[in-house]
């Protein structure tokens, strides 16, 4: 049970992190200025999970991806089930971590001087090259922070995941659920072991971010030239 919970938690947190950061980057590119009313409304929608209690958020997700939900019923026609599977954990992880990832990346985009983008354009860089060689290097720390926060939030998610994935040992039981179940039945030895694993994962992720990403020197490149 312990090993299964650890593997599942890392799997869900890793997949959720990749999806959250990817979605946040795309959304932030188009919404970070927030100049139009539509953009402000979309930003408010993205931020909703920050203000909902996890159990309430889980219930809202269940209304959408459950067997009677409009999306869940549609997926069911193709034999795809979300609730009470590890996929539900990913859905919950993405939704709860997306607002933090979005805010991190948005903050980075707002610090980029317009002159850098214009200089890249004058040097013949297309939209993809400007994104790859100018924008991404300038906000890599923000992307790294978004990844760390997304991973941590998804790794520790409990309420929303419990609502839509359940607490099924070996199938949907993550570390937070395993700790809860262990304490509930008085198995403090297992709970303490899981606690040590959580601390180890947290320290490892933070050390990796600080050592390999935050400590790197800045560099802005467009094609083979540098700005």
Outline of this structure?
This protein has 227 residues and is mainly α.
Please specify the SSE layout and strand pairing:
Blueprint: H1 2-31, H2 37-47, H3 54-65, H4 70-76, H5 86-110, H6 114-122, H7 127-138, H8 140-155, H9 159-165, H10 175-184, H11 188-213, E1 221-222, E2 225-226
Antiparallel strand pairs: 1-2
Helix pairs in contact: 1-5, 1-8, 3-9, 5-8, 5-9, 6-7, 8-11, 10-11
Features:
227 residues; 73% helix; mainly alpha
Structure, explained:
With 227 residues, the protein is an all-alpha fold. Helices cover 73% and strands 2% of the residues. It is built from 11 helices and 2 strands. The chain has helices at residues 2-31, 37-47, 54-65, 70-76, 86-110, 114-122, 127-138, 140-155, 159-165, 175-184, 188-213; strands spanning 221-222, 225-226. A two-stranded antiparallel sheet has the order 1-2. Strand 1 and strand 2 form a beta hairpin. Helix 1 packs across helix 8, helix 5 runs antiparallel to helix 9 (159-165) and helix 6 (114-122) runs antiparallel to helix 7 (127-138).
Q: How many distinct beta strands?
A: 2
In percent, how much strand structure appears in the residues?
under 5%
Q: Work out the oligomeric state of the chains in this entry.
A: single chain
Share in helix: over 70%
Helix and strand run: HHHHHHHHHHHEE
């Amino acid at each position: 049970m312990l090993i299964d919970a650890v593997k599942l938690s890392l799997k869900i947190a890793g997949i959720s992190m990749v999806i959250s950061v990817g979605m946040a980057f795309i959304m932030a590119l188009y919404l970070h200025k927030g100049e139009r009313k539509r953009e402000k409304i979309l930003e408010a929608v993205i931020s909703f999970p920050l203000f909902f209690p996890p159990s309430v958020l889980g219930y809202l997700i269940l209304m959408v991806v459950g067997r009677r939900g409009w999306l869940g019923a549609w997926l069911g026609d193709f034999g795809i089930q979300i609730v009470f599977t590890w996929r539900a954990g990913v859905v919950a992880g993405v939704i709860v971590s997306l607002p933090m990832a979005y805010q991190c990346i948005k903050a980075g985009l707002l610090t980029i001087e317009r002159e850098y983008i214009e200089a890249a354009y004058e040097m013949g860089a297309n939209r993809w090259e400007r994104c790859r060689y100018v924008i991404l290097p300038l906000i890599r720390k923000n992307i790294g922070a978004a990844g760390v926060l997304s991973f941590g939030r998804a790794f520790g998610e409990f309420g929303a995941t419990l609502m839509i994935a359940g607490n099924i040992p070996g199938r949907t039981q993550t570390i937070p659920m395993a700790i809860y179940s262990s304490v509930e039945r008085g198995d403090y030895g297992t709970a303490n072991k899981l606690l040590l694993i959580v601390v180890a994962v947290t320290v490892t992720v933070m050390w990796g971010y600080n050592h390999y990403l935050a400590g790197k020197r800045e560099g802005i490149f467009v094609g083979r030239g540098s700005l």
